[in-house]
Amino acid sequence: MKEMKSLLARSAFGVCSYVGQKMGLSPDRVRLYFIYASFVTLGSPIIVYLVMAFWLNVKKYIKAGRNMLWS
Protein backbone atom coordinates (compact mmCIF):
# COMPACT_ATOMS: atom_id res chain seq x y z
CA MET A 1 0.00 0.00 0.00
CA LYS A 2 2.86 2.40 0.81
CA GLU A 3 4.44 1.74 -2.60
CA MET A 4 1.20 2.57 -4.38
CA LYS A 5 0.80 5.74 -2.33
CA SER A 6 4.37 6.78 -3.12
CA LEU A 7 3.88 6.14 -6.84
CA LEU A 8 0.65 8.14 -6.85
CA ALA A 9 2.29 11.03 -4.99
CA ARG A 10 5.23 11.17 -7.41
CA SER A 11 2.95 10.99 -10.45
CA ALA A 12 0.32 13.42 -9.22
CA PHE A 13 2.56 16.01 -7.61
CA GLY A 14 5.14 15.89 -10.39
CA VAL A 15 2.81 17.84 -12.66
CA CYS A 16 2.33 20.64 -10.16
CA SER A 17 6.06 20.78 -9.46
CA TYR A 18 6.86 20.97 -13.16
CA VAL A 19 4.27 23.65 -13.87
CA GLY A 20 5.32 25.62 -10.79
CA GLN A 21 8.97 25.46 -11.78
CA LYS A 22 8.25 26.62 -15.34
CA MET A 23 6.01 29.47 -14.18
CA GLY A 24 8.13 30.48 -11.19
CA LEU A 25 5.44 29.61 -8.64
CA SER A 26 5.37 27.38 -5.61
CA PRO A 27 4.06 23.85 -6.36
CA ASP A 28 1.67 24.20 -3.42
CA ARG A 29 0.12 27.27 -5.00
CA VAL A 30 -0.28 25.47 -8.33
CA ARG A 31 -2.02 22.58 -6.55
CA LEU A 32 -4.41 25.00 -4.89
CA TYR A 33 -5.19 26.62 -8.25
CA PHE A 34 -6.00 23.21 -9.72
CA ILE A 35 -8.24 22.37 -6.77
CA TYR A 36 -10.08 25.70 -6.86
CA ALA A 37 -10.45 25.61 -10.63
CA SER A 38 -11.84 22.07 -10.40
CA PHE A 39 -14.54 23.18 -7.98
CA VAL A 40 -15.44 26.27 -9.97
CA THR A 41 -15.56 24.57 -13.38
CA LEU A 42 -16.98 21.24 -12.19
CA GLY A 43 -13.85 19.17 -12.80
CA SER A 44 -12.65 20.17 -16.27
CA PRO A 45 -9.09 21.05 -15.09
CA ILE A 46 -8.74 17.45 -13.98
CA ILE A 47 -8.75 16.44 -17.65
CA VAL A 48 -6.01 19.00 -18.38
CA TYR A 49 -4.06 17.73 -15.37
CA LEU A 50 -4.25 14.12 -16.55
CA VAL A 51 -3.14 15.07 -20.07
CA MET A 52 -0.20 16.96 -18.61
CA ALA A 53 0.75 14.00 -16.41
CA PHE A 54 0.61 11.70 -19.42
CA TRP A 55 2.73 14.08 -21.50
CA LEU A 56 5.37 14.42 -18.75
CA ASN A 57 5.64 10.63 -18.50
CA VAL A 58 6.00 10.28 -22.27
CA LYS A 59 8.62 13.02 -22.27
CA LYS A 60 10.53 11.24 -19.48
CA TYR A 61 10.54 7.94 -21.40
CA ILE A 62 11.68 9.62 -24.60
CA LYS A 63 14.58 11.30 -22.78
CA ALA A 64 15.50 8.01 -21.04
CA GLY A 65 15.50 6.17 -24.36
CA ARG A 66 17.57 8.86 -26.05
CA ASN A 67 20.16 8.73 -23.27
CA MET A 68 20.42 4.95 -23.56
CA LEU A 69 21.16 5.15 -27.27
CA TRP A 70 24.02 7.60 -26.88
CA SER A 71 25.62 5.98 -23.82
Quick description:
With 71 residues, the chain is an all-alpha fold.
Total number of β-strand segments? Answer: 0
Shape call: globular
Give the proportion of residues in helices: over 70%
Low-confidence stretches: none
End-to-end separation in angstroms reads: 35 Å
In N-to-C order, the SSE pattern is: HHH
**Taking all residues together, what is the mean pLDDT?**
78
What structural class results from the helix and strand content?
Answer: mainly alpha
Strand proportion: under 5%
From the alpha carbons, calculate the radius of gyration and give it in angstroms. Answer: 14 Å
Count of folded domains: 1
Largest sheet: none
- Counting DSSP H or I runs of 4 or more residues, the number of helices is 3
Written description of the protein model:
By secondary structure, the chain is an all-alpha fold. The chain has one domain. The chain has 3 helices and no strands. The longest helix has 27 residues. The protein is globular.
Short descriptors:
single chain, 71 residues, mainly alpha
